[in-house]
Write a structure and sequence with these properties.
CATH superfamily: Hypothetical protein af1432
Helix content: 40-55%
Order of helices and strands: HHHHHHHHH
CATH architecture: Orthogonal Bundle
Mean pLDDT: 94
Shape: globular
């Protein structure tokens, strides 16, 4: 199928017909989202930053723990992708990852990933003189329990190079399935 393009050079001169072309092409190419996420996850194998395992292994292990605990598909997907932002920037990696997965997960999962570092902080912030109870500012939020479970039961425990971690190929159908269609909001 030939690639269709439009000819406008400024959005304020575009037409509904042209936006129909753009919408159709975007939908036709939605599969590239899974390809790019899988590529970014793969790139985490090069990032260790002093941890006992690379960041890809950490993400895979977090997702493996979530899956084995019976988490639903969206939460397993988010567990897999929670640190993918580290491929771009470590300081704001939660926000990067959260925005990447937002069209494919429900709001409580999105927010749990967006704020996971403050929840994770319970386990290490004190080493940096930061508030280990930073998560408490979110207490009462409808997504608090999801973020707490994610951080305490899976994420903070996922640094064991000897753990029976599932490979990225195991999660590929999940990534492709959830990203096949974006939720528009």
């Amino acid at each position: 199928m030939p690639v269709m393009t439009t000819s406008f050079t400024s959005m304020d001169t575009s037409t509904a017909e042209q936006w129909a072309v753009i919408g159709a092409e975007t939908a036709r190419n939605q599969g590239r989202v899974a390809d790019r996420i899988l590529e970014l996850l793969g790139s985490l194998a090069d990032i260790t930053d002093g941890f006992s395992c690379d960041q890809l292994t950490h993400c895979l292990q977090t997702a493996t723990l979530a899956e084995r605990a019976g988490a639903d598909e969206e939460l397993v997907f988010a567990s897999l992708c929670h640190d993918v932002g580290k491929a771009i920037s470590v300081p704001n990696h939660p926000a990067i990852a959260a925005e990447m997965i937002r069209p494919y997960v429900r709001d409580d999962v999105y927010r749990a990933i967006k704020h996971h570092q403050d929840f994770q902080g319970r386990h290490y912030y004190h080493h940096f003189g930061a508030d280990p109870d930073a998560r408490e500012r979110y207490r009462g939020e409808p997504w608090f329990a999801v973020a707490e479970q994610f951080a305490d039961e899976w994420d903070q425990k996922a640094f064991d190079p000897d753990y029976d971690t599932l490979p990225l190929e195991h999660f590929e159908p999940l990534v492709r399935g959830l990203t096949a269609k974006a939720r528009m909001f």
